[in-house]
Amino acid sequence: MSTNNTFKLDDFEINRIGFGAMRTTTGAGIWGDTPNKENAIKVIRAAIENGVNFIDTADSYGPYTSELLVQEAIRPFKDEVMVATKGGAVKYKPGAIMANGHPYYLRTALEGSLNRLQRDVIDLYFLHRVDPNIPIEESVGALAEFQKEGKIKHIGISNVTVEQFERAQTVAKIDAVQNAFNYNDRRYEHVVNKTTRENIAFIAHTPVARNNWNETALAKARQKKISVNQLSLAWLLQFAPNVISIPGTSSLAHLQENLASGTIDFQINTY
After folding, report:
1. What is the DSSP letter of 80?
2. Where are the beta strands (DSSP E) in 159-256?
3. Which residues are annotated as catalytic?
4. Is residue 1 in a domain?
5. What is the CATH number of the domain that holds 81?
6. Domain range holding 73?
7. What is Dmax (Cα atoms) for the chain?
8. In whole angstroms, what is the distance from residue 227 CA to residue 204 CA?
9. Peptide bond preceding 63: is omega within 30 degrees of 0, i.e. cis?
């Protein structure tokens, strides 16, 4: 990947095409073990060997199976990779999740993630969901306390509005925000714009857009034999310099296609 496609978080330079481990490391409904653990490990290691140095997971993926598999996969590359994980969402059956942002629960979640990832400190720890029953200031305040204890290096928040983001900033330094964002889904564009203005990492989950591309972009993509996946990821790279996408895949061929998105050299119309 081009060095132009990086974002610096303190002293760590993140390649802006990362790896989202959710579907690769779990079964159907983001529940249970992946049906092919050996392949999942192979794909994650291939991603790292090809320049990916940011891997995103969560305790709710599986639950727990994703963090365990990520830990095993990155073991040979432990110091070369930034691992982001999340707490504050409870996976209670296939396809179903609920928020729990209580500080006591977040401490339990964090300790579990430290154990599964076999780390003394989490590089980047997200509040996975805002709990409607707990003020975000209390949830993020707990993460700030864990940071003071040396268990979290960077604090992130996920699935938030601008208003929630601003409230979180009153109790902690927010280093990253993770929301859905792609060419089709721009519900959180105001959040992206805020992070760009403040030079805060924006992690775009669900980064691939399959519909509603303008014809000019599609024509250029066809001419250059670029897939819609590649077009989507290239668009995110061009949207703002702080946007990091986290596509996931269980296919080595698809992985290589995703990574090649960083070399696409034509300007894609934003709207």
Report:
1. G
2. 176-180, 201-205, 243-245
3. 61
4. no
5. 3.20.20.100
6. 6-262
7. 55
8. 19
9. yes
